[in-house]
Specification:
The complex is a heterodimer of chains A (about 290) and B (about 425). With about 290 residues, chain A is mainly alpha-helical. Chain A is built from 13 helices and no strands. Chain B has 19 helices and 12 strands. The N and C termini of chain B lie far apart (about 75 Å). Classes of the chains: A mainly alpha (about 290), B alpha/beta (about 425).
Chain lengths: ~290, ~425
Amino acid sequence: MRRMRQWGPGLLLLSPSLILLAVFVYGLIAWTAKVSLSDEHNARGSKGFVGLQNYVDLFTKDINDRFLHSLKNLLIFTVVFLVGTMLLGLLWAFLLERGVKGEGFFRTVYLFPMAVSFVASGVVWRWLMNPADGGLNAVFDGFGLGFLQNTWWTNPDWGMAAMALPAVWQLSGYVMALFLAGFRGIPQELREAAAMDGASTYRLYRNVIFPQLTPVALSALIIVGHMSMKMFDLIMSVSGAQWLTEVPAVYVWQALLTSDYSKAAAISIILLLLVAVVIVPYLIYTNRAEKNR
Amino acid sequence: MRFTRRAAVAAVGIAALLTAGACGSGDEGGDGSGSTKVEVFTWWADGGEKAGLDGLVSAFGTACAGQTFENGAVAGGAGANAKSVLASRLQQNDPPDTFQAHAGAELLDYIDAGQVEDISADYDSWGLKQAFPQGLIDNLTVDGKIYSVPANIHRANVVWSNKKVTAAAGITTDPKDLTEFFAALDKLKTKGVTPLAIGKDWTQLMLFESVLITDLGPEKFTGLWNGTTPWTDPGVAKGIADFKRLLTYTNKDRDALDWTDAEKLVMDGKAGYQLMGDWEAADLDAKGFKDYGFFTFPGNGTTFQWLADSFVLPKGAKNAEGTKCWLKTVGSAEGQKAFNTKKGSIPARTDAAPADYPKYQQAAMADWKSAKQVPSCAHGAGCSQGWQGAANSALGAYSTKQDDAALTKALVAAAEQFGKKK
């Protein structure tokens, strides 16, 4: 009874959010998983349980290997998006950290694109990346750089790399802010100690500062990575839903439009697992780090 | 003391949340069985479509005194938003009194699910079987029953041209078959314009279907969708070859364009031809472009590839009597006139007076009476939504890879998966 008095009120206060989470997050995930195991392929509803058939079909029987194609697109997109944002973010943070005049101004300039929604920037980039003679291609042409003109996202092999450009543009500033915070969090004593030991600037960064940034880099990777895997709005506004740029999230939407609930649910669950593969180790890692503190 | 205060705070907090929750789930089902409201569920929310709906509503007001129209339009996504809202309402057994759907195979899902009522008997009493052409009645009939009343007819297999551009290239007559069409396209190519403007996947599917009508003929083409013609037919292979050749005359950025972008190429004189449904006539008129010509896709002969918006009687509609009156209005000469003169489509009835309509529609109405009707898959008349999605995706893939074998395989697989099981 006494113990109950200690944690009872706390639990009572938490209970609304716990219940809401249980129903609207975990309950619905469970429901999606259930739908993905049934054969609800049209408006007629489900006829029964089919086990993992929908998942097997996605990988083996999908027309034109549509699902594998969407995974390939997602892979290219994610690699370019991650590498682009991490490199640019680190570079900008490094430059600002070295002490540039008007740091506040540049920080704002770099961070600002993040405030724009993917839909709004996507519409603009759709025009910029016009594969014919508008947008960037026209700019290149005007500067005598015609050889730089290209088909952007309509390229059948590397189009998704072009699709990642707007995303890189938008999120690099955010990664920069994370790294900048990381730089600022390194105690001055460490730098001084390194200087005392006669370390060159290169050695200082290579052996003292960058190792300290690992947790920040990991956070940035996780945040950008899970955004990339769920990418939907940017692609919808740049190219619309079509084969060329289809990623799993867009495929879910397309499957829903044709009332193929089971397929949509199966793709959603695969997407959830993909994100979990990235997030769960991170959660375990941070959990451990906190316990050891 | 300490405990009681904390507990009290917690209890009050939860009570507040619960009350808020209770308020959120207010009651909806206010109308009883004796309702006189007819909720009409559409995706016609603006433009010519909204004007057409308004025309239909005023005809409904005259013909069905005592019934009131309730607009259940869901805007956006070319009907995509409305369809998803509709699907969830049907699943919850809360259907609108009537809803808009493409006539033909797109209705199959609803029919098989038992979500719409058979209205064949009403077709007889309203005289619609005589008013509509037999080809349409055949396409609408599923296992001897009819489930929907088409409000309008659009034609899909029409080529639009910029007359100035074609004249400059020395093209004097409209091509009658594919050989003449290719010759005309070559002439345009030497002039340095894009011979044939096209957009992304579904517009390519429309072009591909038109080519198939030419290479298979209307009967065998219809058979592709009802299962009597296999997709391995040599005519399909010839169709793919012709389609591939046509793609070489199109704009390279086709996957980046929607149909209106392709239309703009024609309007700006950058392209000679474009295949598109006949809503393009209303659109060109609205944009004030005068120099356009039109002809049926070369080699299609007198085939009229149709698509239509139609209305149904859902099972469990709250006001079935009112819905029937709405459907009767939709099918009536007055209703069809009120709707179609505003929307820029033609009436499904063959007894309409052409003088009420603009120039393009008059030509289409004459064809509608005499021509052979075949359905369009790209617009849901020939195939179900799933089939349509698979076909769009297959054409999208073909646009980039041009792999004939893969396209055939995908189309065969789609027909197996979504076609009628024999």
